[in-house]
Specification:
It contains five helices and nine strands, in the order H-H-E-E-E-E-E-E-E-E-E-H-H-H. By secondary structure, the chain is of the alpha/beta class. Helix 1 crosses helix 2 and helix 3 runs antiparallel to helix 4. It starts with a helix and ends in a 9-residue tail after the last helix.
């Protein structure tokens, strides 16, 4: 399904917000006078769909990808791209797998900042989206990471024929979160906390907090592999 397909389904089947009979809502932008017939503009729905897709990624981690970090001599801390959600595994270019550690593991290591050598460990920091390697490297290298990630490119109404980076079976259930966001819009003709709660519950049922990998596990059981990139 393309972005236009998703917005069409959301407007027609979920929100009932097409602007009336014969209205060409597909050509409206939020800056045009004709969009007053719509409760939500196309750009707004696109933003809500992007956020809904991100929520799906948070709950089921549908894509594992390779992410490389150029390691420089004497530099121990590196920023990760914003699309990196979590590092699963990291290895040096010679194939040696690094041990994942927490900064708390080094509380009593008073020589932590002065140790140098071939890197053997890494410390991820999800709050700052950074990674620290240990000890401080004495040579240039490449850290090869397997990561869970978010979509690399967001959808935009400027390109309605683009398709989201998400498996087809997740797309319609994902729209429940977009609908939740629509009904949480704080305007008189859109704000409806009861309907918002309904769509939030539908989304939670499909992508539950308590079992973030349930849909992926079900898909694997049915011999429909999750998309992996190696």
């Amino acid at each position: 399904m393309t972005l236009l397909d998703l917005i069409s389904f959301l407007r027609i089947n979920i929100l009932d917000d097409t602007g009336g009979h014969g209205v060409d809502w597909g050509s409206y932008s939020e800056n045009e006078d004709g969009s007053f017939q719509l409760r939500w503009g196309n750009e707004e729905l696109t933003a809500n769909i992007n956020e809904a897709i991100k929520q799906v990624y948070k709950r089921i981690n549908p894509i594992v990808d390779i992410y490389t970090i150029p390691i420089q001599t004497g530099v121990s801390e590196y920023s990760l791209h914003s699309y990196v959600r979590r590092i699963i595994m990291a290895r040096r270019s010679d194939g040696a797998v690094l041990e994942e550690k927490s900064i708390l593991d080094y509380v009593n290591n008073y020589a932590f900042d002065t140790q140098v050598g071939k890197i053997t460990q890494y410390i991820p920091d999800q709050e700052t989206n950074k990674i620290r390697v240990y000890p401080t490297p004495i040579e240039n290298d490449t850290l090869i990471c397997n990561v869970y990630r978010y979509p690399k490119v967001s959808l935009t109404w400027d390109r309605p024929s683009d398709a989201p980076e998400l498996r087809e079976e997740f797309l319609i259930p994902m729209l429940n979160y977009a609908a939740f966001l629509c009904y949480m819009k704080d305007e008189a003709n859109t704000y409806d906390p009861n309907r918002a709660a309904t769509f939030s519950a539908l989304f939670d049922r499909e992508f539950p907090f308590t079992s973030s990998y349930s849909s992926v596990r079900k898909a694997r059981t049915a011999n429909r592999p999750v998309r992996f990139r190696w």
